[in-house]
Amino acid sequence: MILKRLMFLPLLGILLFNVTAMDAQCKSFAKKSCLPKLAPYINNGQLNTTIMTPGQSADMVMNFNSGQSYRIVVMCEGVLGTVEFQIADASGKILFKNKNGDEITDTWDFTVEQTTQLTLTVKVSDVVDKTQMNTEGCVSVLVGFKK
Questions:
Q1: Residues with Cβ within 8 Å of residue 147, at least 6 apart in sequence
Q2: Domain of 131: which CATH number?
Q3: Which residues pair with 143 in a beta bridge?
Q4: Which residue in 74, 79, 90, 104 is a FRET match for 55, CA 20 to 30 A apart?
Q5: 54, 55, 47, 58: which is closest to 24 by C-alpha?
């Protein structure tokens, strides 16, 4: 029994190393590729990154303060193709979609009149080439504000 547990430890170490390496890769992607897109806005201090695969989606609830101007940047590594996102208020009303026909933007600038909670939904485009189905990459969401 103890021998089986000891054999499991190296495998666990390898898995933890891979997760840590991917997290570091995503943070590097966010800093190098996404952070510059916030300018002239100031980063709120958070680097929101995750590993996603084609067709996958995720929701993120965020708070925004009244009278403040914001920029949201949503980007993914090129290996994933494109990422679509939309912003909805607490009632579910869509306030913004980054895809308009064939046009896609990775930023949205807005001002909040009253403190509110918004839900950001991010979806990585479905894979076109079925040989790329197991592709995964980083998706980053950054929020900036103006003083």
A1: 42
A2: 2.60.120.380
A3: 72
A4: 90
A5: 47
Q: Is 146 helix (H, G, I), strand (E, B) or coil?
A: coil
State both tokens at 94: 């869509």
pLDDT band at residue 2 under the 50/70/90 scheme? low
**Dihedral pair phi/psi, residue 20, rounded to 5°:** -65, -40
Q: Tell me how many domains the chain contains.
A: 1
List the domain range (segments joined by +) for residue 78: 2-145
- Residue carrying structure tokens 């979609």: 97
How far, in Å, CA of 24 to CA of 61, rounded?
23
Helix (H) or strand (E) holding 29: helix 2-29
Instruction: Read off the pLDDT of residues 24-44 as tens digits, 9 standing for 90 and up.
Output: 789 998 999 999 999 999 999
Q: Which of 8, 117, 21 is nearest to 61 (CA)?
A: 117
